[in-house]
Amino acid sequence: MSRRIVFVRNTxxxxxxxxxxxxxxxxxxxxxxxxxxxxxxxxxxxxNAAPTAPAGPVVAAATDFSGIVQRAGPAVVNISVxxxxxxxxxxxxxxxxxxxxxxxxxxxxxxxxxxxxPQVMHGLGSGFIISPDGIILxxxxxxxxxxxxxxxxxxxxxxxxxxxxxDKQSDIAVIRIDARDLPTVQIGDPSQVLVGEPxxxxxxxxxxxxxxxxxxxxxxxxxxxxxxxxPFLQTDVAVNPGNSGGPLFNLKGQVIGINSQIYSQTxxxxxxxxxxxxxxxxxxxxQLVQHGKVTRGRLGVSVQDLNQTLSESFGLKTAxxxxxxxxxxGSPADQAGLQAGDVILRFGGHAIDHSVDLPxxxxxxxxxxxxxxxxxxxxxxxxxxxxxxxxxxxxNDAPAxxxxxxxxxxxxxxxxxxxxxxQLGGQNGLxxxxxxxxxxxxGIQGGDVILALNGTPVTxxxxxxxLATKAGKSVALLVxxxxxxxxxxxxxx
Length: 493
What we know:
Layout (H helix, E strand, L loop, with lengths): L5 E4 L5 E2 L49 H7 L3 E10 L16 H7 L10 E11 L5 E4 L1 H4 L2 E7 L5 E3 L1 E6 L4 E5 L9 E2 L10 E6 L7 E14 L2 E9 L11 E3 L4 E11 L8 E5 H14 L5 E2 L2 E4 L3 H6 L8 E6 L4 H5 L6 E5 L2 E2 L5 H7 L6 E8 L2 E8 L1 E2 L20 E5 L2 H6 L6 E6 L1 H6 L6 E5 L2 E2 L3 H10 L3 E8 L2 E8 L2
Parallel strand pairs: 10-15
Antiparallel strand pairs: 1-15, 2-4, 3-4, 3-6, 4-5, 5-9, 6-7, 8-9, 11-12, 11-14, 12-13, 13-16, 14-15, 15-16, 17-24, 18-19, 19-20, 20-21, 20-22, 22-23, 25-26, 26-27, 27-28, 27-29, 29-30
C-alpha cells in the first residue's frame, strides 16, 4: 500500500474530549562535531624566508541565534483554542478512513464509553505580537471554528482574545488581546531574503512554549496545492504541530514569514516547511483590521508553469511566464481578449517569471482598475488591457467569534436515568451532554457526571443554574469520570 504524502497545516492535533487523552513526543538528539580543514601539502618557502606560523584549524561555527531569541522571544505567544468537532460515529456508522482516530475507535471502541453528539476540540498554535496594544498575527486555521481563544505570554499572563478577522485564502488571522505596552517583533522584507540564508523559527511545537528551531531558506515563491495566492518561503526549519502561526526570523531578528504548513508522510517534520511571506500577511492584516474582510482582484484564468518543451512550442526562448490553460467565460480576462495558450509575460508593468507571480499581482490590484498585460501568442508579443474584477469573498472572512452565550458554566446537562444511576451506585447527578466556554477550557468532557458545585450536591438542571448564578468569579465542580471523582475549577463568564 502506497504511503500518502500530504501538506499538513501544523496546528496541534485535535483531541476528542471524553474519548482519547494523551499524545506522543519524539525526541531525537545529535552531536555536531567541529569541521577541521585537512592539510593537502606543505607550501614552497624561499631558503632565506622566515618560517611562517602553521595555520590553525578552520572551524565551522554554528550561527548564534540567542540574541534574537532573547529580544524577540517575548513577542511570540502560545494560542490555545476550544471549539466543537463533529460527533463521534455511532457503532453502525461508517467511519471516515482518513480520520486518525478511526482505527483506534474500531479496535478499542467497545471498551470505551464514548458519548454521542458533538465533542469538544482542544488545539494549540502560535502567534506573534505586531502592535503594543495587543494586535497578534497567526494562521487562520489555528482559530478557525474556535469558540474560545486564549493567548499566553512568556511571562505566564493569559488573556482571552477576540478574533478581528480571518482570511482562509491566505491562511492569515488577526486576533487582539486587551493589554498595553506589549513587546513586539520587527517586520522584515522577504524580497531581500536569499536562498541558503539562515533563518530561525519560534513557536510552541506539541505545546512546548517558546521553542526555537533554525535552518535555511530552501526556496522562494513556492506554489502549493489550493494556495494560489501565496508565494511560500520553503525552509528546512523544524516546524511541527503547534508551530502554526509562529514567526520566521532572518539574521537581523526581523520577521520575514509566518510558519504555516509542512510537507509530511507522517504529520511530523521531515525537512520541508513552508512560511507565508510577511508582506503578504501584513497586507491582509491591514484590510482585516480596517474593513473586517479582504478584497482581491480577479482575472478569471487558470495558469501553469512552463517547462523547456512547452516554452519551445509556444515560441519562447526561456521558460518564463504564466501559461494560460483556461479562461472563464465572461470573466475580465475573457472580456480583455485573453485566450487559452497565451503566455502572460508581464502584468501591470511587472515581469512574470513563474505562474505563481501572476495571482499575487492580480490579488493586490484594486478591483475596477485597468492594467496592461503583455502576452506571447503565436510567436508574437501582444499588448492587451484588462479591467480587473473582484474576487468573491469567502464566507470565512467575517469575524469568527459568533457563538451564542453558553451561560456562566458553558454546560448542557440532563438528569441521570435509572440505569445510569445504578451504574453510579444509586447516586444523583447531571450528565454532561455538551461543553463550551469556561467548562471546555477547564477540561470538562461530554459524558462526565456533575455531582456538586462548591460542595452543594446537584440533582436537577434548574438547581445547577441557580447555584452558578449566585456564584462568584470561580466555582469548583465535583465531577465523576469513569471510576474517579475529581474537583475541577472553573473561571466563569
